[in-house]
Design a protein that fits this description.
globular; about 80 residues
Length: about 80
């Protein structure tokens, strides 16, 4: 039997998208205007709902379940000049 698709709150989903884009808890907290522990709490709750043990696994599972999308993840720009 397959596991039902987990549900995330808006804050948990938004936080995972920001994590997927390479942001630290401190960066996410500054962007959202909250304390870093609030970001950590949102991530812990998301891990629990997804069955994840770390950031990378949480992002992978959120992608697998269709809770976040590749189009929301921005690749870093290459700052080096090319010849």
């Amino acid at each position: 039997m397959s596991r039902p698709r987990p549900r995330l709150t808006h804050t948990q989903r938004e936080t995972l998208v920001l994590v997927a884009n390479g942001n630290t808890n401190a960066q996410i907290a500054a962007w959202r205007g909250v304390a870093a522990h609030s970001v950590a709490e949102a991530l812990t709750a998301a891990y629990r709902r997804l069955g994840a043990t770390d950031r990378a696994q949480a992002v992978a599972l959120a992608l697998r379940y269709g809770l976040i999308h590749l189009s929301e993840i921005r690749l870093p720009t290459d700052s080096k000049e090319r010849p």
